[in-house]
């Protein structure tokens, strides 16, 4: 059994977890990765002394799978203050702990964001969700999140000022059409845990997972062209024969018969600027509730000093959609930043723009988990990836674990 050739396509979070679990069962998996690094969508570049994550991403410390697989101390996690800074051209104000402890928020500040009744409802929702298991949340009938918030009785004021800009940044879509199951899960996670980043960037997460591997081989710069039966055809013309294959990338990329089975993923534009110093001056997300282009901003060095090696601050800006050319978009974003900060637009120096075409999967039926039988598509081929469950690091880890269970089970004798 130990000599079985098990190939994993993709060294993202799902692929790494699948390898880790297979190692525990005594297998020697081989990962084929098209790029030169682990992590998939979770990666960090170093540009001009700044650490740039691919898209603004956070790790929620309440994620059950993250607690299982990651040593938070080894990552030197740096946490965000709960809440958000609401920014527009007229004023800025802080709403602290809206999901962790809504009743403790000062009434004055909250009244600008929502009503007293909103505060009570927020508290009630927090308590309700803490009592529900994650499985129960994902088995609840699904509504679009915006409809769910209105049905729960939240005012238009708090929906416009807080929920829409905050959850647009989480779901990467403007209408909050994302399932209420995902809203409830994320809301619960934020009320239990903290948003955090590793001290040296999100790319430290896959690096830490890789360090835990001992018998897995990873072949970098090895792109897979197609999987047919138990044969893996590489872009370089080679063919590998496998006993089992875990596809830990979107499978239609390597299996012709699955093309057209997946909705177009959510895209996002992530822009990084340097500025003399942070105008938020606290480890908090800034929400632009009137921005045409900018949805949310974060000064990454307010959260972790290691993101900057210079004396300038690093500003991460999330733009959900734009039909502008890059130069025009940079100008539009700089002018929106000037409007909310009072700092002249030319002081925001562009470092890099990331156009991320696959940021999150678009799913009709969100799940928390699935039986391992559901990730097997042929006797040889198994699937892993957050697109099987819901778009999150937690789901990516879950799916990798489930795929490895399915592979292990496939070797067990049937009676």
Query: Low-confidence parts lasting 5 or more residues at pLDDT below 50?
Result: none
The major pleated sheet works out as: 7 strands, mixed
Query: What fraction, in percent, of the residue positions are helical?
Result: 25-40%
The structure class reads alpha/beta
Salient structural properties:
alpha/beta; FAD/NAD-bd_sf; FAD/NAD(P)-binding domain; 415 residues; 32% helix; Amino_oxidase; Polyamine Oxidase, Chain A, domain 2; 20 strands; five-stranded parallel beta sheet
Explain what you see.
The protein has 415 residues and is of the alpha/beta class. The model has no long low-confidence stretch (mean pLDDT 94). Strands 8-7-16-17-18-15-19 form a 7-stranded mixed sheet, with helices on both faces. A 5-stranded parallel sheet has the order 10-2-1-14-20, with helices on one face. The protein has a 3-stranded antiparallel sheet with strand order 5-9-6. Helix 1 runs parallel beside helix 10 (204-212) and helix 1 (13-24) packs parallel to helix 13 (393-410). It has 3 domains: 6-42 and 203-262 and 364-410, FAD/NAD(P)-binding domain (3-Layer(bba) Sandwich); 44-78 and 196-202 and 266-360, Polyamine Oxidase, Chain A, domain 2 (Alpha-Beta Complex); 97-189. It has helices at 13-24, 64-69, 72-75, 107-113, 116-131, 134-138, 145-152, 156-171, 180-192, 204-212, 300-303, 326-341, 393-410, and strands at residues 6-9, 30-32, 44-47, 50-53, 59-60, 77-79, 83-87, 92-96, 195-198, 217-219, 224-228, 231-234, 239-241, 244-247, 266-275, 285-288, 294-299, 313-319, 349-360, 381-383. Helices cover 32% and strands 23% of the residues. The radius of gyration is 22 Å and the shape is globular. The chain is built from 13 helices and 20 strands.
